[in-house]
Amino acid sequence: MVNAQLHPRLKPQTEEMRDLKLTCMDNLLAANDAIVYFKDRDSRFLFVSAGWIANAVPGLTVEQVIGKTDFDFFSKEFAAATFEDEQAIMRTGEPVIAKLELDERSGVWSSSTKMPLSDGSGRIVGTFGIARNVTELVEAERALAHQALHDPLTGLANRTALMDRLAHSVLELERQPSALAVLFVDLDSFKQINDLFGHDAGDKVLAEAGRRLVRLSRRGDTVARLGGDEFVVLCRGIGDDRDVARLGDRIVCGLRAPYFAGGRDLSTTASVGIVISRDSLADSESLIRRADTMMYKAKKAGRDCYRIDGSDRSECPGTRELTRTAPRPGSPAG
Questions:
Q1: Cα–Cα distance, 38 to 21 (Å, whole number)
Q2: Does domain 150-324 have CATH number 3.30.70.270?
């Protein structure tokens, strides 16, 4: 009797709840910023939201999407990875939470949560997903990461990036016996350029010096700006010390070449200190300091030259030091 009395009261509530769910779903699917999709067991679209259309295939209609797959709209790699995810979800019943994905065709980054789609009996009949476009967020994070590791004026690696790469390069010497070289580059009389022409002119010189160092260095070398007018070139995989000497020649000659900007002669020269290491236990900061010391010896030797310290072992420190002045453009080498 009680059940009979309750039943008429429960039935309207159930219908009201069903209507409410449908209303919520209609609003969700109609929202332009809600990226929602439903797929069958073959990963064919059953339904997509207006937000999915706006972000993935603007200009198409829901009817043009239903029955098709990701392979019809996205890059092959993206579609294949999505298909594998969905098959795994249906096989295991386990969702994929907040997966970061890139569609290389459009360049759009998305964060997707994908779950099994079940019928009234609990049987898995497909998948559904909720995603959001995070392209701006990813690009902002990448910009911040780039700023953290690069010099804003020259675009070169900064000290943080250099020291990280140098530490890894030292460790590589244990696995792959060879040598690395640290070339510490300091522009000669740079302060005079700032004093005579101003800091804008000085910035132009620093930027040009950075560009030249990149061109003069080998592919794969790290060119970094430590600050001020100090640069470092890190070379890995050195098989012959003479290759480093030749690089020193190129850098001194290349930075000596005339540079004019705004009708003013902003040419300068450089002093370079070089350390060659084969020691897998070498300290990165120590290598930088020793190259810095060699650079000051090059300045004392007359500037516009480089000086090499080729011995980095404690039992025979500084046993081979070589000072050379690179040939000026147009003069005989040697």
A1: 16
A2: yes
Is a pLDDT exceeding 50 seen at residue 290? Answer: yes
Alpha helices in the chain, H assignment, sequence order: 2-30, 50-56, 62-65, 76-92, 135-149, 159-175, 190-197, 199-216, 241-256, 284-300
Distances (CA, A) of 200 to 36, 224, 230: 52, 20, 17
Predicted confidence (pLDDT) per residue in 301-316, tens digit: 899 999 998 533 222 2
**49-94 tens-digit pLDDT:** 888 898 889 999 999 999 999 999 998 998 999 999 999 999 999 9
- The predicted pLDDT at position 107 comes to 84
Candidates 3.30.360.10, 3.40.50.720, 3.30.450.20, 1.20.1290.10; CATH matching 31-139: 3.30.450.20
Domain with CATH 3.30.450.20 in the chain: 31-139
User: Per residue in 194-249, pLDDT tens?
Assistant: 888 999 999 999 999 999 999 999 999 999 999 999 999 999 999 888 999 999 99
CA atoms within 13 A on the CB side of 6: 3
Biggest CA–CA distance in the chain, Å, is 115
Distance (Å) of CA 289 to CA 274, 285, 304 = 11, 6, 20
pTM: 0.64
Residue numbers annotated as active site: 229
CA distance 7 to 255: 91
- In the chain, list all ranges with CATH 3.30.70.270: 150-324
Tell me the C-alpha distance between 213 and 222, whole Å: 10
Count how many Cα atoms sit within 13 Å of the Cα of residue 162 in the half-sphere of its side chain.
Answer: 26
What pLDDT, on a 0 to 100 scale, did the predictor assign at position 283?
94
Angle at 84 between CA 82 and CA 90, to 5 degrees: 105
* DSSP string computed for 10-70: HHHHHHHHHHHHHHHHHHHHH-TT-EEEEEETT--EEEE-HHHHHHHSTT--HHHHTT--G
Measured between alpha carbons, how far is 24 from 22 in angstroms, rounded to an integer? 5
